[in-house]
Structures are given as structure tokens and as C-alpha cells.
Amino acid sequence: MNRNDQQAYDRGTSLFSPDGRIYQVEYAREAVKRGAPSLGVRTSEGVVLAAQRRTNSPLMEGESIEKLHKLDDFLGAASAGHVADARRLIDDARTAAQRNRLRYGEPLGVEALTKTLSDEIQETTQVGGTRPFGAALLVAGMDGDDPDAAPRLFQTDPSGAPQEWRAVAIGSGRDDIQEFLEDNWTDDLSLDDGIAIAVQGLFESDDELGAESVSVATITSDGYESVSEDAVAAVIDEHVDDETDADDAE
Prior knowledge:
With 250 residues, this protein is α+β, with helices and mostly antiparallel strands. It has 7 helices and 10 strands.
């Protein structure tokens, strides 16, 4: 297929190419790959979300960059890709969570919320005059407010296909981070272990990160809670710096 033929299939999201591809969806995935990385780790006690806050200038306030989002008391999300697109999906997720509470008097499940968002994302790949969302989300939380509720972790994709994961990364450097998670994730991880692995995972794509550039949050039976910068710095000092010193010694 020559370039002119490909351009014809670039013009709309509702057009398949002869080999069954939707180019606009693939371009949206490329936008996600260019975003600062985010990752999620499911543990026996809850889910850990972590993300890199990437600033373009030393004058920019890093705290103004939102990569982790509280959706409800027991629901959270991490994003990668176009910030504006991610904010739109986050707003829709919060609306869906509150609507469920008002209508049924109970929190919305992680899987139900992910599928609701995925339906919205998929619609943009099928309706003329729209473009796919150039963002992906990790939707995490507990299935309800019961103390015995199970932790869940899902990923959305610009195509609208949801997937459940034990640990997963999105954004730039995904391959390196995912390989690290596959080597280090186990069924019996504690929440503290999950935080350590999540922070270490981010350093797989950028080994010069500082605590001020890392956001971490946990969702457990106690709810959504942000991890302080001091706590992140302590994890870096204990796990990342020690590993770097060991590598230098070799």
C-alpha cells in the first residue's frame, strides 16, 4: 500500500484499511506512548498507582501536573498521553461513580466503571466527526467498601478494549517497566512491597528521577490515599539508591 492510499484511510476513524487497521486508533496509541509513564501494581492489601510528573521547565510547578486521580472513595486512576483527553475521561469517570451512588446507594465496581469508560472510548472509533482519545487510563480500586473487598486493576486503550492486570505500565518506557514488573511481581506482595516495586519501576525508564517528580497513591479497604513526597523519598533512598550503589560496586 503506498502513502497516498494510506492517507485516504487516515481521514476518518470509522474507515478500516484493507488490512483491517484503523490508523487513527494506532496514532492515538502512539500519543499514549509519548506520555510520561504511569503504572499500577495489585497487591494482597490493595492497589498501588505511581506516575512520573514530567515538567518542561524548572519554573513549572510540578504539583500542577495531575497524573493520579481520585475517582471515588475506593476508586483511583492513573493516566498517560494527552492530558486534556485524560481529564475528560477522568471527569466522566467521577460522574459515573457519583451517579451510581445516587441511584443505587453503593460504590461503583472497578470493572463496571472501566467498561463504562471503554464504551465511551470505543464510540469515538465508530462515529464520524470525532477522533479517538489520545490517552490511556489505569483504573484501580476495591470492589465496594466491604473490608473483604478484592483489589482490581484495569487498563483502558484508545481502541476501547479494557483489560485486567496484576501489574501494568502505560506511557513512555513501557517495555522496560513491564519487563521489570514481570520479573518482580508476586501474589503475596504487601502494600509496602507494592509501593517499592512501583517506584523502582519508574526508574527503569528514567534513572535520574527525584521524589518531587514521582506521584504515588494507594487504594485499600481504607480508601484512596496519596503517598507523601517524604515517604517516596524514603523508598528511593532504601531501594533505588542501594541498588544503584550495588551496580556501581560490580
